[in-house]
């Protein structure tokens, strides 16, 4: 594990983050009041994750997702990266981005939105990103499908999956 006290964005620099909203703290947009703000060092995910070969990444940055993706072009191009779980809920508008922009960026990197059924262990393509909550984007491949089918079952709240 590599924990760092920093932000992730399109390029190196510093950004102001809110501190008064608990789990919904976020990068302050231009003109947004920052009475309880903290300045945070930011770098591109490509720089932070240099040398890493993850199979999956999760991006949940309260609307700043488009900037994170811009700084992760190298990581997103890696064939080893098979999935991106990203929260899309319209908050990117505060930074001038729409969920449609983010969807298009991921599709350009050959990721497609899917629904995963853990009982059947199958992926089903969906036509567009969800409008709220997490959307799973994957590079569907025979390897990924095989891994899903071969995974050991587990119990979750007394239910075998």
Protein model, in words:
With 161 residues, this protein is of the alpha+beta class. Helix content is 21%, strand content 27%. The chain has five helices and ten strands; from the N terminus they run βββαβααβαβββαββ. The strands form three sheets. A five-stranded mixed beta sheet has the order 4-5-8-6-7. A three-stranded mixed beta sheet has the order 1-3-2. Strand 9 and strand 10 form a beta hairpin. The longest helix is centred in the middle third of the chain and has 10 residues. The model has no long low-confidence stretch (mean pLDDT 90). Keywords: Methyltransferase, Transferase. GO terms for molecular function: methyltransferase activity. Pfam families: Methyltransf_21.
Offer a concise description of the structure:
By secondary structure, the chain is α+β, with helices and mostly antiparallel strands.
Key terms:
161 residues, alpha+beta, 27% strand, FkbM_mtfrase
Task: Please describe the topology of this protein.
Blueprint: E1 7-9, E2 13-17, E3 38-44, H1 45-48, E4 56-59, H2 65-70, H3 73-77, E5 83-87, H4 99-108, E6 112-117, E7 122-125, E8 134-138, H5 142-150, E9 155-156, E10 159-160
Parallel strand pairs: 1-3, 4-5
Antiparallel strand pairs: 2-3, 5-8, 6-7, 6-8, 9-10
GO molecular function: methyltransferase activity
Domain Methyltransferase FkbM: 24-106
Pfam family, one: Methyltransf_21
């Amino acid at each position: 594990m590599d924990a760092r006290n920093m932000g992730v964005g399109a390029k190196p620099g510093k950004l102001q983050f809110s501190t008064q909203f608990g789990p919904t703290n976020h990068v302050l947009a231009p003109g947004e009041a920052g009475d309880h703000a903290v300045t945070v060092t930011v770098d591109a995910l490509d720089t932070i994750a240099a040398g890493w070969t993850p199979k999956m990444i999760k991006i949940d940055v309260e609307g700043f997702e488009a900037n994170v993706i811009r700084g992760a072009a190298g990581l997103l191009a890696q064939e080893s990266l098979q999935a991106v779980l990203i929260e899309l809920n319209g908050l990117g508008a505060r930074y001038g981005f729409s969920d449609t922009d983010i969807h298009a960026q991921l599709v350009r990197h050959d990721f497609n939105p899917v629904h995963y059924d853990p009982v059947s262990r199958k992926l089903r393509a969906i036509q567009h990103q969800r409008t709220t909550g997490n959307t799973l984007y994957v590079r569907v491949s025979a390897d990924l499908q095989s891994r899903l089918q071969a995974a050991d079952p587990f119990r979750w709240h007394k239910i075998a999956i």
